[in-house]
Structures are given as structure tokens and as C-alpha cells.
Amino acid sequence: MFAKIKSAYLNGITGVGVDVECDVSSYGLPSFSIVGLADNAIKESRERVKASLKNLDYHFFNHPVTINLAPADMKKDGSHFDLPVAVSILSASGIIENNLDEYLFLGELSLDGSLRAVNGILSMAEYAHDAGIKNIIVPEENMQEASLIPELKVYGFKNLSETIGFLRGDIQKEPFINNNMIDETLSIDYGIDFKDVKGQFAARRAAEVAASGMHNFIMIGSPGSGKTMIARRIPSILPPMTLKEALETTKIHSVAGLIKDSGSLINKRPFVSPHHTSSNIAIIGGGSKAKPGNVSIANSGILFLDEMLEFSRSVLEVLRQPLEDRFVTIARAGRTVTYPAKFMLVAAMNPCPCGYLGDSRKACTCTAHAIERYRAKLSGPMLDRIDLISYVEAVDYKDLMDLKEGESSADIRQRVMNAHKIQAERFKDEGILYNSEMSENMVRKYCQLDDNALKIMEQIMAKHNISARSYSKILKTSRTIADMNNSTKIERSHILEAFQMKLPDSAV
Q1: pLDDT tens-digit map of 291-326
Q2: How far is C-alpha 212 from the chain's CA centre?
Q3: Residue 198: which residues within 8 A CB-CB, separation 6 or more?
Q4: Domain check: are 228 and 164 in the same one?
Q5: Range 494-498, long-range pairs (CB < 8 A, 24+ positions)
Q6: Does 263 lie in the same domain as 231?
Q7: For the chain, how many structural domains are there in total?
Q8: Average of per-residue pLDDT across 80-89
Q9: 155 and 231 in one domain?
């Protein structure tokens, strides 16, 4: 007998439909084969499915059993095919007689028939919804995550026995309804606040500008000057993610296996701080299963490189492509996957190997050659992709002992939110959200300069040998500063501030 069950697999963060076809023959020697470009995890599914069914007193393997995962020309992986394979065998054998065309099945089986949670449920549930499939059956641990997709009836079960009872009509169960969706107006408590930062007015201003346009930002200063403290507080001045951002980021985290028993979309912007010994694959993504890396896990949030120049040069250089394109493409095992990488890069670095170049408290002990070799890790093309650079000086005693609190994150966040709203309205038909994402055509369209701004920009271009990319970065940052001041046109003061933040060592 023959049966066909609907399932899915992951291509990046996109769910792709699969038909699990089963033929249980009445003739021939006992065998159990799975075909259709299945990986090792799926091939091992044979043993898990056989043990699960035998432990439930179902004995089908005295006859040839053939499973085909269609389409057969697409490579598939994942242990989540266990449940659909088992159900297809039960359906082909006549144990389950009801029509299963409106169900999609996902789940890994234990040898005793228990259902285990799997990664990437949200993306595959989204596929089910888009394909017009009304019902999805998943492990109970994945039930809340799958229910984040609206208008999809989600049924979660602890084991295969419960699933069979439900499909045969012996057990009645209501679909799970999730009312814990994202609130875009909700303020998030990060537990830290900008009011704790003493002094550092220039760095605080640069951080606010960076957050207002999601610009890439580097802080340079001696040890203990407050670079890391400022960086870790930047998420506290960012508004919650939009629904689109939250859905995309939650799918990435689900594929990466970072979501467990979550009943809501992620609305807290990610803050990812990898160790300086991290490899290219850890940062960008890859491995045998082409998993997302830190640049994708930080999507819609912040990737913070503390002690930036302690990272290997190859890691820093490999960041150039996602900083420019806002996505990464990984080719592994005969297939290519693409992950979003729309992150804001924040980095902290010392000015020299010893860390005290230019410090008023302690003399630098580095040679000129050592300083040059140290800074050479940050190449010109990489530096070109940075929007803002701020020198962070050591906090003086007077500021440190000042009992007066600085401006709170809530107050700064309100201004950042206003700038984000202006940008959301401006780019509502462009497919982007922030000034930092503008293409060159958009820069020409939206970065309109008044007469005085044009003159100072011409003066800057004539005096400084800046690249076309740096010119574009200055205009994008100027647009953000203008938005912060509710100005429709970019003015002279906006250009000057953006220029000083891009090239702090240069004078107009």
C-alpha cells in the first residue's frame, strides 16, 4: 500500500516542502530503505522509527518498506523527518485511515516513541501557512514556537502513541493558541542604563547617532576608559524590534538552536559579543550543516567586537561582505544557503599594543613600528565600512566623583525612536528601515543638502582624499543627524559633525 505525508526541511531560514512517500509491499524480502538525497541523520531515522514502532507493538518490517523524500533532487537533512516517516508507514499499512492531506508533520523520535524538539520549527511552520496547510503536528516542546504563525492550527504531542490516537480519532485535542505575540511599543528593561556612564560626552553622542541610524561604530581608547561600558548600553537606547525584524531574527535563532520552549517572538535586540579567538566559521557561519554565525545571530541587533584588533585579520576581513551586503551566503555539501546579517557593528580597540598611546595617566611603551604593525590589522577597505569613530579618553577624577546621574537610557531612547520613525516613513516603499541601509540611488534621492552644506562638502572633498564609500557614509550619517534635529534638508552643521565622526583626526 502507498501513502503520502507532508513535511518540510530548512534551506537557510526558509522552510521548503517535502512529500514523504511510503510504500509497504506485500511481497519480497524484509527491507527498509530511505531514498531522496537524505543525509546521515535521515538515514539513521530508520533505526529510530523501527524501534519506536516495535515498542508500540507495530510490526511492519517483515515486508519491504520504501520511503521516498520528494523532490528527490534536493538534498535534505534533519532528524525532524522521524515523525512523518513513522506516520507515513502507519498510513500506508492502514493503521491510520483518516485523510492527512491537511497536516504537516515534524519531530524527532526517541527509541521509546517519545517526541524530541527540533530546530527551525518556526520557518517550517511559516512554510505550512504559506502553502495553505491548515494543521501542523510537532513535539510538545516546539508547540509554542510553531504557534507564533497566525491562522495555523498547532497540535503538540509528547510521544508517537498520542499522535496516533489523535490521527485515528481516539483522542480529542484542541489546537494550541498563542496570545503572547510581540508588542512593538513595549519598553524592555536591559538591567543597565546610560545614566551610569560618567563623562564621555563625545562618545555618548556618537553612540546615540549610531543607534539612531544603525551605523557601524568604533571606539578607540586606553584600558578602563569606558568603551565596553558604553557599548553594552547601546541596546538599552534602541527601540524594540518591528514585527518583521522580530520574525526574521526569531527564525535565525530557531535554526541555530537558541530557542527552547519560547512562546513569543524575540523583541529584545540581540547583543552578540564573540571572543577574540573566534574562527571565521563562528563569526560568519558554516560547518557541515551550514549553521548561522554570529553576524546572523546578531541580526537586527549589535555585533560587538571587544578588543577588535585582537581578532585575527582574516576574521576582520571576512566581515567586509556582510557589512556591505547585509547577508551571508554559505556553500556546503552541494547546496547554498543564505542568512540575513543586518547587524550594527560596534567595536572597541586600544590605540596601540600597550593601550596607552595618548593617555594622560600613563606613558606609551610601544615603538612606532609596533604601533604601525598593530593598526595594520584594520585594513583600509574595512575601515571604509565604518561610519563613526570616537576617541574615548580616560574619565577624569572630577567626572568620576560627580554624584549627579547622567541622562538615562529611556530619555535617549525616545529621541532614537523618533529618528527611527522618520526613517520608517521615508523608506516605507524602499524595503529598508534605516539610513545606514541606503543604496547609492537612495543617497542621491534622500540626502538633499542645502547651499551651505554643499559648499562645505565640496571643501571636504577638495582637501581630503576620501573614497567614494566614505563620502557616502558621511552623507548617510549626516542624514541621520538631520533626522535627529527634525530637519528635512541636510545642513552645514550636520555635515561637519558627520565628517568629524568619520575622520576624527582630520580638520576641515
Answers
A1: 999 999 999 999 999 999 999 999 999 999 999 999
A2: 19
A3: 226, 395, 399, 400, 402, 406
A4: no
A5: 494/453, 495/449, 495/453, 495/456, 495/457, 495/460, 496/456, 497/209, 498/474
A6: yes
A7: 3
A8: 97
A9: no
